[in-house]
Amino acid sequence: MINDPAMEDKKEFKSQATIEIIDNGPIKITGRILIRDSKRDITDNPEEVYLCRCGRSQNKPYCDESHKK
Ligand code: FES
Q1: How far is the CA of 7 from the centre of ligand 1 (A)?
Q2: What does the domain layout of the chain look like in residue ranges?
Q3: Is the CB of 28 under 6 A from ligand 1?
Q4: pLDDT per position as a tens digit, 3-46
């Protein structure tokens, strides 16, 4: 359900991605997405990615499971 009044007029709105915050872990994104940093596109249209939110990954922006250590 969309609670944003700006979106109420957009009857065709369809989510193209799902974002899941994993307890004590990364952000899991599935769907059709583009990941971009300030300089470049990092990857285009992956089906599933895990983004680090603990700051310990040596492979940012991706989770490398360092949060488990
Ligand atoms: S969330 Fe997994 S390494 Fe940061």
Answers
A1: 33
A2: 19-68
A3: no
A4: 555 555 555 656 688 999 999 999 999 988 888 878 877 776 67
